Amino acid sequence: MTQNTASDRFREWFLPIVHLSSNLISRIGVVMVTVGGVFWLYLLPAALRGEVVHPYIGILIFLGLPAVFFGGLLLIAAGVAWQKHRELRRGIYPANFPPLDFTNRDFRRLVGFVAIATCANIVIGSQLVYSGVNYMDSVTFCGRTCHTVMQPEYVTYLHSPHARVACVQCHIGPGASWFVRSKLSGVHQVFAVLFNTYPRPIPVPITNLRPARETCEQCHWPARFEGNRLVTIPHYAADAANTRTTTVLLMHIGGGNGQGGIHGAHVAAGVHIVYGADASRQKVHWVEYVNTLTGKKRLYVDDATPPQSVNLQSGRTMDCIDCHNQPSHTFHLPNEALNAALAAGSMDATLPYLKQQGVALLEAGYPSRQAAARAIPRALQRFYAAKYPALAAQKRNAIAASAAAIMRIYRENVFPSMKIGWGYYPNNLGHVNSPGCFRCHGNLHLAGQAGQVLTQDCTVCHNPLAVQSPNPAILQQLGIAGATDGAHPSP
Ligand code: HEC
Ligand code: HEC
Ligand code: HEC
Ligand code: HEC
Ligand code: HEC
To answer: What percent of the chain has pLDDT over 90?
Structure first.
């Protein structure tokens, strides 16, 4: 009995809507509802599995499609209200409605229209969604769509060892929970780009970056790192001959299989290092080392921090990017970039004072890339024309090629539109150009034991086999004199 009255009441309420919905506004609403619904159903499973990792897709799933869906519902209602108003005014609003079955013309039309709109959306959606999702996850989209914002990261990325690793593999990684978190911050980022309120340059460190061990270890497994790596670093002096010397370091890479070394000390199984620092993470105040396998536990602090004031909860757990903070966006300094270009032969090291001129040209400020591109080749030509006229005529092409290489270094490291100048982003992997390893090593001492510092022994991280030596004996012995490896990628 009660069921009957309920369905009667539903019919009473629904029949006028069926009748009134055959108007243009409601039809548009129906199309929007089916677009929103069908596309949403397509995207949702991939989103929940964490396959779709782009913030724009997140905006679409969590904001865009629901907005279309509910906007459509509103339009249907508005169309119905408007149609009723019109029919009442014209006196054509029916007193009774035919029953709700396929003899009812209005109902037939409505069902037919919804069916066609749904089918069309299923067909269109199946084509668009897949390619759209793939595109938005692609490096092209991440690197180029927000052109100015991401240009520095995209350009440096293209010249990094990770040029074939997709942005999302480091910035989001696998699994659903980080996908959702990145969605939330992604929404905010997209609005920052739309309204042009994003910071220039983008500040580092990125505080909400996923712990690197969950992303990097998809491909790099510290238990498998081992042994030593020979690193050769070319140097060219700022003299007339651009005098070449070479530094050779045997880096103690080490690993997690109890081999110690750099990775054994910080990321092996059982090791937990937590440290406290300022917002830039460049000034470390204290660091705690715990090894759950050996039971070793130590606290190191700087002079300004009383050990009892250390708050371990506020610390950051050390992971890969505390050293590898530029695995993919490596910003070089003029000196090292020119050394690499000279060593690679893209600049002619026989041109007198080329290194010195290169540093001067790169360090001179330019208002824009266009201005730099005009000024650099002209200034280099002028220098040789004034000081070495015969050579300038004879080596015209070599000078032009060297100027182009200098310009390339500028383009790959300086981004006036994002206010990124030389050395804005410090590289933590070393200690010569920025504090790097020495933020802790040599700066912090064992709590309660003044004088006993965290090691700065020159041979603990690397054997300096030769330091700026003209012709390192070790390279001759190995039969690779003059060679350079890829540790400092050529620009
Ligand atoms: C190999 C891993 C990796 C890849 C691939 C990668 N990034 Fe990064 N990215 C990082 C790390 C690590 C940081 C530094 C985080 C920090 O210092 O806090 C970073 C920082 C950034 C920053 C902040 C500014 C800066 O330079 O530090 C932006 C923006 C960025 N990445 C965008 C991108 C884009 C766009 C791509 C693809 C073209 C990409 N990333 C590819 C690991 C990666
Ligand atoms: C999707 C796989 C992948 C991910 C994720 C990844 N890498 Fe790599 N990494 C590579 C590949 C491939 C190379 C290049 C190997 C080569 O050139 O021999 C590489 C090279 C490197 C190198 C050596 C560079 C050199 O100078 O030879 C370092 C260091 C490194 N990765 C660190 C990281 C760090 C740190 C992260 C996390 C932020 C990371 N990688 C994430 C695949 C990955
Ligand atoms: C304490 C600093 C530090 C930490 C933490 C660290 N690394 Fe390294 N890593 C280094 C140094 C230094 C090198 C050698 C660089 C060179 O050759 O110039 C290196 C080299 C590498 C290489 C190249 C190995 C080879 O055989 O050439 C890879 C890959 C790498 N690290 C990945 C990682 C990953 C992944 C993590 C996190 C699990 C990590 N590192 C944590 C300092 C660190
Ligand atoms: C956040 C602080 C911190 C930074 C930055 C840091 N380390 Fe360490 N490092 C430690 C701690 C803590 C230990 C363990 C000290 C102990 O065993 O008492 C350690 C130990 C080591 C050891 C083993 C020392 C030994 O006596 O066996 C090596 C090698 C090493 N670090 C290399 C590096 C390199 C290379 C870098 C830079 C790329 C670096 N560290 C950056 C904190 C740091
Ligand atoms: C905590 C680890 C650590 C300690 C201690 C350490 N270094 Fe280094 N050193 C590094 C790393 C990492 C690099 C970067 C290697 C690279 O560029 O691939 C480096 C690079 C260098 C370079 C090459 C710089 C260049 O660009 O030519 C020299 C020279 C050097 N170290 C000398 C020393 C001397 C001298 C000491 C002793 C006072 C010392 N190091 C102590 C980790 C360390």
So the answer is: 54
